[in-house]
Design brief:
about 90 residues; single chain
Length: about 90
């Protein structure tokens, strides 16, 4: 991943891989993709220069479900941009 900067008050977050439930029914690719987008946890990979110091790259955070904007970064990967005020908790 080759990110260099983001908006001064935003945080770039890499979502955790989605683990499909291995139950009786198999999820379609579309359903798996929707579930991945609905995730609200991930690892911080980049913070804006004006963000408060309580979040650092490498931290695991949870954020509001609808606060993330997916941004493609190449090779089929995507990161979420989240305003620092929408991060709920750091683990």
């Amino acid at each position: 991943m080759n990110l260099k900067s983001c908006n001064p008050h935003f945080v770039a977050i890499e979502a955790f891989p989605f683990e499909e439930d291995k139950g009786v029914l198999k999820m379609t690719e579309e359903t798996v993709e929707r579930q991945q987008r609905k995730q609200n946890r991930g690892k911080v990979i980049l913070i804006g220069k004006d963000c408060d110091g309580w979040i650092q790259p490498g931290d695991t955070v949870s954020f509001y479900k609808n606060a993330a904007t997916p941004v493609p970064v190449g090779n089929g990967e995507e990161v979420f941009l989240v305003h620092e005020d929408h991060i709920l908790v750091k683990f």
